[in-house]
Specification:
three-stranded antiparallel beta sheet; four-stranded antiparallel beta sheet; 12 helices; alpha+beta; globular; 9 strands; Arc Repressor Mutant, subunit A
Length: 327
């Protein structure tokens, strides 16, 4: 019966394959009220069919200067599975609540993906933000020490307010070769030496070299281990700047072009992507990002930096969406 039905639907007497979208329409007929963009992989069994339900999420982006609108459909991926018997009767179907939770979860993962893209491309600009440098001050204390001393020993942790936190940071620095462990002490790593030599080459005075080294080091850490800094150390002050930066570029990356955004639009997008923060808190953050060169402001609208955006687009192609979603 099922083969005869599929032959009729597809118009193909041999049934070598069938259209997932046509099966989707059959499903809609059998299960009124549920509207999925697509049914993905369909697997036949001896007593029916199992289909992975996939959803594309619509987004509309508006350029606040030109008023041009761009529509994109984000591939959310699988949100559940549908099981049909041999008579195409629905045997098992995920609830709307379960599908909704999966959609929300995957949308959140896509926001985190764009954060990683933005931070990797903007790391050198973000490293110029004073509060981000201050948030990573324990790292600065240790690396500044190594600029003038051969090692950091266990004895030198005495008297620190949070010695355990400093040791966690040292482990992070060891992972990315900024320090190397030698028995019970730490010395400069290969990445440390490389960044120090770059600072000496590009800056003239000792104070300028130290300042540039600090920025290069923070940019390197953000680029290489932002997820660790975010998830392990929970530095909320720093995250506010990253979130504000991503609130602009996330939309432009999805629209695939730089968008002019008013302050109100950008603040609304921040509070839609993350948790609510007062405009009194966010306005200075946006101004600081402009001063750091992470974005620009023409007096009326915020706009991204072309050089950074081009790099973000290149990074985006190296980070497939499927890798960021729940399978």
């Amino acid at each position: 019966m099922i083969l005869d039905f599929l032959r009729e639907v597809t118009g193909d007497p041999k049934i070598p394959s069938f259209s997932a979208r046509r099966i989707a329409r059959i499903v809609h007929t059998k299960h009124d009220g549920t509207d999925f963009e697509d049914v993905g992989e369909v697997v036949a069994s001896s007593d029916g069919w199992t289909a992975k339900l996939k959803v594309d999420y619509p987004r509309v982006f508006t350029d606040d200067k030109t008023r041009e609108r761009t529509i994109r459909f984000l591939p959310i991926g699988q949100v559940g599975s549908l099981v049909l018997d041999a008579n195409l009767k629905v045997k098992k179907f995920p609830s709307r609540e379960a599908c909704g939770k999966r959609i929300v979860s995957n949308l959140h993962k896509l926001v985190q993906r764009s954060e990683r893209i933005v931070v990797r491309a903007s790391a050198k600009r973000l490293a110029k933000v004073a509060i981000i440098r201050e948030a990573l001050n324990p790292i600065y204390i240790m690396t500044d020490h190594l600029l003038d001393h051969p090692s950091i020993t266990s004895e030198e942790f005495r008297g620190l307010a949070k010695p355990k936190r400093f040791r966690q940071y040292l482990s992070l620095l060891e992972e990315i070769a900024l320090v190397e462990r030698r028995k019970d002490f730490f010395v400069q790593g290969t990445a440390f030496s490389s960044l120090r030599d770059q600072a000496i080459k590009e800056a003239e005075t000792r104070s300028e070299q130290e300042r540039l080294f600090e920025e290069l080091m923070i940019a390197y850490i953000l680029s290489e281990r932002y997820d660790t800094v975010r998830e392990v150390f929970h530095i909320s002050r720093m995250q506010t700047y990253v979130h504000a930066d991503n609130s602009y570029y996330e939309a432009s990356l999805e629209a695939e072009k730089l968008l002019h955004q008013s302050e109100d639009s950008l603040l609304s997008r921040y509070n839609a992507l993350y948790w609510f923060k007062s405009p009194l808190r966010l306005r200075p953050v946006l101004k600081e990002l402009v001063r750091a060169g992470a974005m620009e402001h023409d007096g009326t609208h915020y706009i991204g930096v072309t050089e950074l955006f081009n790099e973000m687009q290149a990074i985006k192609t190296q980070m497939p969406i499927a890798d960021s979603l729940i399978a």
